[in-house]
Design brief:
Elements: H1 2-21, E1 32-34, H2 41-58, E2 61-66, H3 75-86, E3 96-102, E4 107-112, H4 122-138, H5 142-157, E5 164-166, E6 172-174, H6 187-210, H7 215-221, H8 223-228, H9 231-258, H10 261-272, E7 275-278, E8 281-284, E9 289-291, E10 318-322
Parallel strand pairs: 1-2, 2-3
Antiparallel strand pairs: 3-4, 4-10, 5-6, 7-8, 8-9
Helix pairs in contact: 2-5, 4-5, 6-7, 6-9
Length: 323
């Protein structure tokens, strides 16, 4: 019993320890707080002047913090803690931005105040991390990564020309409308999770297109799944693009299939006989279907269709990354 109690209390002890012994919030003394000492004096001075000029032009308050390590603390929680302690931005506008770089942990984050989330979206903040800062950091160029990242943030907030960046392969990329940012997942995790999510909803989408019975029912049934599930991989913007493609693409594909001879034959069998067979699948007029063959269309076995699951929602307020 004592051992079991210890295991039950362990998560609580670890949580309290993270609060008590996590990385401290430094006292704010300037726009660029290089506590990790990764920036040259020239870059630090130049960047401070640029951030000061940006604040005078727009009122937006941007601060940069480098810290060697977070001592195991979550960077999202730490960034919020620093943001609230420093109270960045004007009180009635919440127009502050915090850029945190943790070199020993190889982590970074752009934390965005509520008032600027409509301009510096999660997708845009994530793209700045991935395309502007990460390539520099991978090459050990902290000066370039921090300075270019901060200038990209200022460019977005001022609505000017977005920076052209060079990725690891040497090809040039520019921030665009269709660039998306999802949760902080590795490339392998995105591939595996994406194959599962899009495989499942893609299968039911195909069934809706090619089935004469429950086709349109599946079209409306899958709308919430296309609106939420892709956000786990692509983020909210990516999920929106997928939903638009689905809402437009499904009817186009469906009406194209309606004109084919085999579909019209299957629809007639469904109307007159109460069931039909497509690709070994027995479809009934009541909307149920089961596996079968063309020679066993009289089978009475059936299975209920449908699947359950949930989709993630974006926390908002910025993006994180690693290198």
């Amino acid at each position: 019993m004592k051992i079991r109690s210890i295991f039950l209390l362990l998560p609580v002890v670890l949580f309290i320890s993270s609060l008590l012994f996590g990385a401290e919030v430094p006292y704010l003394t300037g726009r660029v707080m290089d506590n990790a000492q990764i920036l040259s004096p020239a870059v630090k001075q130049s960047l401070s002047e640029s951030l000061n000029a940006h604040e005078k032009r727009t009122g937006n308050q941007i601060a940069v913090l480098t810290i060697p390590t977070l001592e195991g603390e979550n960077i999202e929680n730490y960034a919020v803690k620093v943001f609230e302690s420093w109270k960045l931005g004007q009180k009635d506008k919440d127009n502050g931005v915090l850029i945190v770089v943790v070199p020993n942990d190889r982590r970074m984050r752009i934390e965005v105040g509520y008032g600027l989330e409509g301009t510096l979206t999660d997708a845009m903040a994530g793209w700045i991390i991935q395309a502007v800062m990460t390539p520099k950091f991978k090459n050990g160029d902290y000066d370039g990564g921090v300075a270019d990242g901060a200038r990209a943030v200022m460019a977005v907030l001022e609505g000017g020309e977005l920076p052209v960046t060079e990725d690891d392969s040497g090809s040039l990329k520019k921030l665009g409308f269709f660039e998306t940012e999802g949760p902080d997942l590795s490339f392998q995790e995105r591939i595996l999770l994406g194959a599962f999510i899009f495989g499942v909803i893609g299968l039911f989408t195909g069934m809706g297109i090619f089935m004469p019975g429950p086709g349109w029912f599946l079209y409306f049934f899958l709308i919430p799944f296309w609106a939420t599930f892709p956000s786990v991989i692509l983020g909210p913007d990516g999920a929106l693009y997928c939903l638009i493609v689905y809402l437009v693409g499904f009817p186009i594909a469906k009406f194209s299939v309606l004109k084919t001879a085999w579909y019209q034959k299957a629809a007639e069998e469904l109307r007159t006989k109460g069931q039909t067979t497509i690709g070994g699948m027995v479809i009934r007029s009541d909307g149920t279907f089961s596996s079968g063959s063309s020679g066993s269309s009289s089978s009475d076995s059936s299975s209920d269709s449908g699947f359950s699951g949930g989709g993630g929602s974006s926390g908002g307020g910025g993006a994180s990354g690693s290198w």
